[in-house]
Design a protein that fits this description.
The complex is a heterodimer of chains A (212) and B (328). Chain A is of the alpha+beta class and 212 residues long. Helix content of chain A is 21%, strand content 23%. In chain A, the strands form two sheets. Chain A has a four-stranded antiparallel beta sheet with strand order 2-1-3-8, with helices on one face. Chain A has a four-stranded antiparallel beta sheet with strand order 4-7-5-6, with helices on one face. The longest helix of chain A is centred in the N-terminal third of the chain and has 13 residues, at 58-70. Chain B is an all-alpha fold. Chain B is globular. Classes of the chains: A alpha+beta (212), B mainly alpha (328).
């Protein structure tokens, strides 16, 4: 016997009915590794963390993140970085500044011959999203953090910092800007497109229904 | 959309005696100050365990909840409704992605969660074990199940765990469209031809009992529940959510001249509370434990999708990939 559904397409799958043996635990990385996505809400705004995606490579991660995080919200730019490539400082409490807590600077385990670019992201308050603070040149993550502290670490509370090499960030290109344009015919997926009050008022007038 | 009805069972981690008292005090003080907890913070085992369970169930509910509505995309009347229904279903699946990642930051991998869903080890909202017989059923789901979900999610968004709050903020923004879309669809049917009215009333009659169980049974007030409320894991009692839902939506049902299939449903003006026939909690338990009209089908469909996609995922897998849990 196969499974009968109200949906003929499900019925046509000929799925076995009744008890089925448990599936084997999914293998490691069946769902791929993770990438972190940062979007730019409007022209000139800093890139802000929106969330992770699972993907087999950077390009697919970009596509998934575009679909997941820009489909429904204004977006004019997107950055993607592999989670593994992002270095994270400890978190401090709201109102504190993590740069001031970092008294001891660790010796870098790896140092590049020449200075290269690093992107710095700050979290201003717990529960909010990391925002791009700027770019620094350094020969290691530790040095980048020091540079970031000198350049952007003075102002206000910063509860956490993310550091990632610029070469590890896939950035949407300036000449591809038109990919962010939403065509106006997609209003059907906006709450504002649904105006029911006229219908309800008309119905109530004709039928004298009351809410309570 | 989200199945509430979380039953917070006591676990062996209830015993906070085993936790480091200084760390526990610091953790509790942080929450009391209104600060959010972030993934790498120290947290009690009970906190981690209950949040994983709650966020995971929420994620499963999104993905399984997309099935009864997804099946109506091709049969939705008219092109515009097909597009809108498709956009809604895509949103729900997207919500699952956000939520799986939030749960992952607590240490359970997406692979484990998907395995547990298919093997019936973790739950999803019980309402999705009921069938959507007609287009009108799909409309009632879009409107009232999503309405219930929003009540739940708005409360949970104020919870203490950072990644869950961030995910819920995005989710709530999208749900605003679902609610309006669902309401519009129901109003269209209710103010339409006698046949359309009859269809929407019949669907409402079918869905009312599951809707009344949506927020779960009354909470047993235990020290366990109190702890979870103090930690801002559980933000409102099941009864509070149910009352809020009734307050907001029963008037909207009645103004359309539709009836609710419960003769005892009324608002007690003295207490300000809704009175209703107690839902059939025995049936709720039976269905949530596997014996509902659609449990087998929902899991079989999910399982098939996983199995049929496995070779694609294997082919795409980068052999050098290394698992790192998402950052936030």
């Amino acid at each position: 016997m196969s499974l009968k559904s109200l949906d003929p397409r499900v019925t046509r799958l000929n799925l076995p009915e009744g008890e089925t043996p448990a599936i084997e635990p999914k293998p490691e990385l069946d769902q791929f590794e993770t990438y972190e996505a940062f979007h730019q809400k409007k022209e000139g705004a800093a890139h802000t963390y929106v969330g992770p995606v699972h993907a087999p490579n950077e390009d697919v991660a970009f596509l998934f993140a575009k679909e997941q995080y820009s489909r429904r919200f204004a977006c004019v730019g997107l950055w993607i970085a592999r989670t593994e490539h992002i270095q994270v400082t400890p978190y401090v409490g709201d109102g504190e500044n993590v740069y001031e807590m970092m008294r001891v600077v660790e010796e870098p385990t790896e140092r590049s011959e020449e200075a290269e670019a690093y992107e710095i992201f700050h979290l201003k308050k717990r529960g909010k999203a990391h925002t791009h603070a700027g770019r620094v040149m350094a020969t290691s993550y530790q040095e980048a953090l020091q540079e970031a502290r000198n350049q952007f670490g003075e102002k206000g509370p910063i509860v956490n910092v993310w550091v990632v090499k610029s070469k590890h960030v896939l950035q949407s290109a300036e000449e591809d800007k038109d990919m962010w344009t939403t065509i106006p015919e997609k209003k059907y997926r906006e709450a504002i497109a649904y105006k029911v009050m006229d219908k309800i008022t008309k119905y109530k007038e004709e039928h004298k229904t009351t809410a309570l | 959309m989200y199945g509430g009805g979380n039953v917070f069972e006591a676990t062996k981690f209830d015993d906070l005696q085993t936790e480091d008292p200084a760390k526990l005090a610091e953790f509790e003080a942080r929450i009391a100050r209104g600060e959010k907890i972030e993934p790498n913070d120290w947290m009690p085992q009970l906190y981690r365990k209950q949040l994983i369970r709650m966020i995971e169930q929420h994620a499963h509910s999104e993905i399984i909840g997309a099935l009864p509505e997804g099946t109506w995309i091709t049969r939705a009347p008219g092109f515009r409704r097909k597009m809108a229904q498709m956009a809604k279903v895509q949103d729900e699946v997207g919500h699952a992605q956000l939520l799986y990642s939030a749960a992952e930051t607590l240490g359970k991998t997406r692979e484990q969660m998907l395995t547990d869903l298919i093997n019936g080890k973790s739950k999803y909202s019980n309402v999705f074990n009921y069938p959507a017989f007609t287009w009108a059923d799909s409309n009632i789901i879009s409107w009232l199940i999503d309405a219930g979900a929003i009540v739940n999610q708005m409360a949970n968004a104020k919870g203490s765990y950072g990644p869950y709050s961030r995910a819920l903020e995005r989710i709530c923004a999208e749900e605003a469209f679902h609610l309006k879309y669902g309401h519009d669809a129901v109003v269209h049917m209710a103010t339409g031809t006698p046949k359309q009215r009859e269809m929407i009333q019949a669907a409402l009659n079918r869905w009312w009992p599951p809707i009344m169980t949506f927020f779960g049974p009354s909470d047993k007030m235990s020290t366990h529940t109190e702890t979870l409320m103090r930690w801002k894991v559980k933000m409102a009692s099941n009864d509070e959510c149910r009352q809020q839902f009734l307050d907001m939506y029963v008037p909207k049902i009645w103004e359309l001249g539709l009836t609710v299939p419960d003769p005892n449903l009324k608002k007690n003006m003295e207490t300000g509370q809704w009175e209703f026939t107690e839902p059939d909690w025995d049936e709720f338990k039976r269905v949530i434990n596997g014996d509902g009209p659609c449990n087998a089908e929902r899991l079989a469909v999910r399982r098939t999708a996983e199995e049929r996609g496995a070779w694609v995922r294997r082919a795409l897998l980068n052999p050098k990939a290394k698992y790192v849990k998402p950052l936030a």
